[in-house]
Every structure is written in C-alpha cells, then in structure tokens.
Design brief:
Two copies of one chain form a homodimer. The first copy, chain A, has about 425 residues and is an alpha/beta fold. Chain A folds into four domains: about 160 residues, Molybdenum Cofactor Biosythetic Enzyme, Chain A (3-Layer(aba) Sandwich), CATH 3.40.980.10; about 45 residues, Alpha-Beta Complex (Molybdopterin biosynthesis moea protein, domain 2), CATH 3.90.105; about 90 residues, Molybdopterin biosynthesis moeA protein, domain 3 (Beta Complex), CATH 2.170.190; about 70 residues, Beta Barrel (Beta-clip). In chain A, the strands form eight sheets. Chain A has a six-stranded mixed beta sheet with strand order 7-4-6-5-9-8, with no helix packed on it. In chain A, strands 16-13-17-21-20-18 form a six-stranded mixed beta sheet, with helices on both faces. The first copy, chain A, has a five-stranded mixed β-barrel with strand order 22-25-24-26-28. In chain A, β20 and β21 form a beta hairpin. The longest helix of chain A has 19 residues. The interface between A and B is large, with 114 and 115 residues.
Chain lengths: ~425, ~425
C-alpha cells in the first residue's frame, strides 16, 4: 500500500538528501546566461573608478552656488570642458564651472554638478539659478560597487542584468557549475515513439519523454534520452542502474501500486538507492516516487501526461534545482488570480487544478479546466495551475488563488 | 524638448505599428521549445483513438454491477485479460468482467471499469462490492482531443507540455516562425569593450550591449552584435541604416536631450523611419526612444545600465514580442508582494522601483532598493521591480505591489 507523503514533507526530504553538483567550468560571460555561478564574483576595482557626473551640466564647488535663484543668480567663470571619454584637464578652482556631460569624470576640486537646465552661458560666464548640495548629481568613486565587495553572489542563476554588471567590472569569464546530465526514461509495454504514424491498437505514443526532457533542458540540463523501456524488470533494472550514475534520473510510468509497479521494485534492487517517498498526497500525482542515490535524485513520475506535467513542477523541478545548488524548496512564485468558478475538493489530498488565465479589470481571472486525469489535451490549453489545500473542501468563486505556470520560463504566460 | 509619452500610450503605439515576422521554418518537435508556432496544429486522429481504462480493474457492462455492495456483492464471469499493449481478444458479453490495466483498450461491449480495490477474484468468478456508472473509469475515443480539433493554437510560444501533446498526436515536426535577427548597438565615445582590463581615465566598459543581447537571446532572438559606436553621426547613421534591415534594432545611449542626442538625429535622417516616442513618462527611463521602420521596431535605450535594464522590460521586450507575433501589449504577469517600507513618488512620472523579494509568512515582502540611476550594482541585487503610478505621491509600507522579474525567464527569482 502507498504511504502518502505531503508535498511539504517530500520537499523537505529532497532538500535534506540531494547534494549539489560540485564540478565547475569556465565560460565566457556572454555565454553564461542561465548558468549557475560556482563562486562569488567580487569587484576588483571601485565602480565607478572615479567620480562621474550623472547629468549634463557644470561641475562646481557646491558652496559657490549657495543662494542662487531666478531673481538672484550666481555667476561663475567658465572652465575647460570635460569630454565624456577623457580625463579632466586639471583641477577646478573656486569660482569656476566646468562643462561636463553625463558620465564625465568630475574634476578634482569640484564636489557637485549643476544641471544644464538651471544654467545659461554668457561668453565666459555661467549663470546659475539654483544651488546644489555637496555630492549632488555625482556618483562617487566606488559608490556604486566598492572594490572588493560582492558583485554577484555564488549560486546565482545568471540573468541578463547580472551579465551587464559583470561586463561593467571587466569580468569576461566566469566559473559556473557544469550542466547536470539527466536521464529521462519512459516505461510501459504500450508505449511507442512519437514517430510511429499508424498506432497499433492498444498502443500509445510516449508524451512524457519529450515533455520531461524539454522541461529539464529549460532548467539548463543536458538530457540523455528520452528512452523507451518495456515493462520488463530486467531491462528497467539495468537502465536505472546505468542512469543513476548521471546527476539525476526521471522515469515515468511503472510507479502505480498496480500489477506493473516495476520502478520501485527495480530501484529497491539497486544497492545504495533509498526510496524517500512512494506516493504523494497530491491529486493528481499519487503514484509519484522519490528516491536518492549518493545525493542524486531519482524521480518517478506518473504515467498519465497531465499528472506527470504537474508532478514535474511540484517535485521534479525542485529536485533538479537542488542538484544544481539552487533553493529548490523555496516557495514557488506565482500570479495572484481570482477564481472564476467554484472548485470542490473531496479527495482529502492537496488538489492541483489546471487553469486558464484571463485578464479581468486590473487583475487576472483563473478559469479551472476539468478533465479526466488521463486527458493530455489540457496540457496545451492550461496557462498554469493552482492548489486547493488538502484540509479545504473547496474554494468559492471569487477566492484568490496563486497560479503557477505549467512550465516555468520564458513566455509561459504569453 | 522631450515630449513624454505614458507607458500605456507607448505600448499602444507599438502594438499598432509593429508587424510580426511572416517567414517560418520547419523544426523537429523535440527542438521546438520556446519557438512560436506559425500555424495551428490540429489532431489528425481521435485522442485517444479508442476507449481506454483510466484505472487497473475489470471492464464490465455498468448495468451488470447495479446494486453491488459489501453486503450484497455482484458476481461476474472472468473474461480474458486485456494487456496494456494489445487489442482486446473479442467482445465482452453480458455478465462478464475482463481484467484491464490502466491504459488498456476497453473491449467492445463494455461501458465501464470497476477499480481493482472493489473486486476480488474467486477462480473464474469476479466479486464486485461497488456499482459503476456508464463511462466510469473510461476515457472515450476522442474524449481527450477529437480528430480535427485544435491541439495547439497558432502563435503559441511552445512550452514543454505543448511538446508532449504534439508527441502524443504523432506530430514530430512543426512549422515555427524563424528567429528574429536583432541588432544591438551601444553608442558613446566613453565606451570600451568589457575586455579592456585597465580602464583609461574617463572610460567605461559597455554593460548594456551584453545585457541587452542576453535578454533578446532569452526571448529567442538571433543577436547581431553587440557593437560599440563612437558619438559620430556618420558612423551611427550608417550603422542604423544597415541594422534596420534586420527585424529590430536596440541601441543604447545617445538618446538624451543633451548635446550628444545623436540617435534620434541620425534616425530622422533615414527615409521611412518614424519616431513614435522620444521620451517616456517613466522614472528612470525618460531618455527612451521608440521608432519603427516598415513594421520593425527601433528601440533607443537610456545609457545608464539600470535604466536600460528597466526600459528593456517596459518596452524593449514587448516590442520584440510583438515582432514575434506575441501579445506584447498584454499586461505582464508579476508576483504580489507586501511593501516593506514606504516609497514616495515626487517625479510626477510613473516610478519603477527595483526591489528584493523575501519570503514572509505565506507571502512575499518587497524591499525597495534605492540607488542613483547611474548605479549598476543594483541590477545584480534586485529580484525584480514594481511600479508606483504617476498619479500617486507614494505607497505606504504594507501596500500590495506587483513585482515583475528584472529579467523574465527561468530562475529569475531562484
């Protein structure tokens, strides 16, 4: 009999048992999008390395502008222009105003910049109608990032802006974790490759393999497979034995408590493999298996594609993220939406409901999609899914729910 | 003087002016993650092609189980087992119960399946202690997706589950839009390549080029560049003239109203280019330029990296999504969070505030990050950003805000 584990408990176990990859490699910063930083990057020099103007205008001594107003302007001597790509030509003296552009180095002797719009030039005299405070319109040396401080922390999955920060600091190569190598297996005598055009009666094309592989690639994995396996304990056992030497194994089908419950049976024959959970208190997704071998996750997904897709988001993605040193147990981020119709939960388990999202007023409306758990079409119709907690008998129309994308990543909700 | 356009107005103009790419190409379904479907895909056959059992149990005529209970079981004759990978061996007769597995074809003559747990077998007799209704535990032929109906709609950015649905229907090649080719240019005499180790005084390494290129790649673009350009109207003009023949141009710097306002000047010299907006009523991001040439966007980003990163999310990403036929004007999806400290808005413009997200109770806390707009370090610290509307003088601590990721996509909030 299945011992059903709550999702929370399952995630805690994964967090405790999965060990992150330690091997790293150097890549060009420009190729590092989505990779995970293996060690923190510190700034070698101050950023900016010298005080820079943040506006177009005139560098001055702030005290020289005190009291300036429309009715009583201050007049300063025009100094040499500081080109944006050059060093200032000397030191600013009291009573002087040096033209600067946004980004220009502020000359020594100056401690503020007056914006162009509060000035007018009369020959060699600059008229100013507003005072400035010390430091105004200047970003000081190291004020952005001081030399030696952390630019980007270890374990960060690098985003486009992170690459910008690294480029600004002159860091053109970064040490990142190597990509996880993950096996994707689909079990079932009834399965045939998606390439089979005329389906023999009783057969079904494998959907989980391609779906799981794509989802893992999206997370940055190198996928081995998908590979189809018959319901043969010998074959499954050998495939699992080979696959476990990779960073993670995702196997779908053969995990239910029926007569073909082969995956847990084969796993228990492999030394060192520990089954953490056989059965999740989640609907759909009861026939989910979680195991570990030397810190590597083995995730058994249900055979039904809709269930497999949901379980992948619930525990499959957290498992591989933990293997990548990310915080896989962290609460996933979702979109708050208003439930379009009531949902009841008589399962006594946590219920995952696929839904469509529609813009409504300032917010979002979540329309639950109902289907038998074997229905696969729902996967292409759903924008995301939300949870009805186990202890809840239902949610009324108008309740607020947190909708999670059915497959994280770019454009999931386009 | 800049004519400031509201973000809403700017997005409307983009939506009206940008034409989607029309050229498409065929790719393997397994390589199609993130690509945009150029034409809808319909199911060639019913899915499933025949009625299948959704549970392990016995196929029966529902009427034969009427009245079955623990105290008064029904007894049926054992029929031949239907293997999950085979066709049933004939037609089920009244009074028979045929063993089926999850996924087995339901034999003709049967109209329901009794779950294994409500049965026991005594030799050639199957005892049932629960009745089933017609259709129970069966997914009918075409009940999931009927032949001829739309499996995945045109214009969908393909997600992992979409690939699963296509595979299930035997669709191994799909017609997708070709990738947009996009030029990324950075202007400014002060700019040097990130590879320059020892920065000459006054110079600054280009951060916008790599950041913008990475963000566009994340959206599925083929990027030409990044390329550095001096503040020379001749050079900029020629580069823009060449670049506009691609699908989109992203150029940073040279768009402020100061002395080096070269990009709008050069663009206005190119025949057929129409400037839609020079200046956005957004802080930071005022020096933003939006133009079109034959349905292709030309996006002028501010020179400051933090502003450039925000403006990229505000209008840059919507512009390229529109070129890809996606709904770029659609309201972006974000995470509802509780503001950790008060934020004031004296700008009279829409204010974008970078923030950190922290888990707090059941929800999220948004901690505003303050920095001069020239500061780039903030880009690597922020999880996302939220908006304070122009008509609002501020938001109190505890207000609910919608936090948008600083760079969409996988793991942006890991």
């Amino acid at each position: 009999m299945l011992q059903l584990l709550t999702l929370e408990h399952a995630l805690e176990m994964l967090q405790r048992e999965i060990l992150p990859i330690e091997e790293s490699e150097w890549v060009e910063t420009s190729d590092a999008l989505g990779r995970i930083l293996a060690e923190e990057v510190r700034a070698g020099d101050d950023l900016p390395p010298w005080p820079r103007s943040t506006v177009d205008g005139f560098a001055v001594r702030a005290r020289d502008t005190h009291g300036a107003s429309e009715s009583s302007p201050v007049y300063l001597r025009m100094g040499p222009e500081v080109a944006v790509d050059d060093a200032p030509g000397g030191r600013l003296l009291p009573g002087e105003a040096w033209p600067v552009a946004t980004g220009s180095v502020v000359p020594d002797g100056a401690d503020a910049v007056v914006m162009l719009e509060w000035t007018s030039v009369h020959g060699q005299v600059v008229e100013m109608v507003r005072p400035v405070a010390q430091g105004e319109n200047i970003i000081g040396a190291g004020e952005d990032v001081p030399a030696g401080s952390v630019l980007v922390p270890r374990g960060r999955r690098l985003r486009a802006p992170d690459l910008g920060v690294l480029a600004a600091a002159g860091i053109t190569r970064v040490k990142v974790l190597r990509r996880p190598r993950v096996a994707v297996l689909s079990t079932g005598d009834e399965l045939v490759s998606p390439e089979v055009r005329d389906l023999p009666r009783g057969r079904v094309r494998d959907a989980n393999g391609i779906m799981t592989a794509a989802r893992l690639r999206q997370e940055g994995c190198h996928v081995v497979g998908p590979r189809l396996l018959p319901d043969d304990p010998q074959v499954i056992g050998q495939a699992l034995d080979e696959a476990r030497r990779l960073d993670a194994v995702y196997v779908s089908g053969g995990t239910s408590a029926g007569s073909r419950d082969l995956v847990p049976q084969c796993l228990s024959g492999l030394s060192g493999v520990r089954v953490l959970a056989h059965g999740l208190a989640v609907k759909p997704g009861k026939p989910t298996l979680l195991a570990v071998w030397e810190g590597r996750p083995v995730v058994g997904l249900p055979g039904h594609p809709l269930s497999a897709g949901l379980v992948m988001e619930l525990v499959g993605v957290p498992a591989i993220r933990l293997r990548m040193g990310l915080d896989g147990g962290r609460r996933p981020t979702g979109i708050t939406a208003c439930l379009a119709s009531e949902v009841s939960n008589t399962s006594g388990r946590m219920l995952c409901v696929p839904c469509r999202l529609r813009a409504a007023g300032d917010g979002w409306l979540a329309e639950p999609l109902w289907s038998k758990s074997a229905a696969i079409g729902t996967l292409a119709v759903a924008d995301g899914w939300f949870v009805v907690p186990a202890e809840t008998v239902g949610l009324a129309a108008g309740s607020l729910v947190t909708v999670l994308p059915l497959a994280g990543g770019v454009g999931a909700l386009d």
